[in-house]
Amino acid sequence: MPPALGPVASELIDLLTLERLEDNLFRGQSRDIGTRYVFGGQVLGQALAAAQATLDNGRHVHSLHAYFLRAGDIDHPIVYDVDQTRDGGSFSVRRITAIQHGKVIFFCAASFQDDEPGAEHQLGMPEVPQPEDVQPAPPVPPDVMASLPTKVQRWLSRGGPFEFRHVYPRDELNPPKRPPYQQVWFRLRESVGDVPAEMHQALLAYASDFHLLGTATFPHGISYYTPNVQMASLDHALWFHRPFRIDEWLLYSIDSPSTQGSRGLARGQIFDRQGRLVASTAQEGLIRVVPDRAAARAVPAKE
Question: pLDDT band at 151, cuts 50/70/90?
Answer without folding.
Answer: low
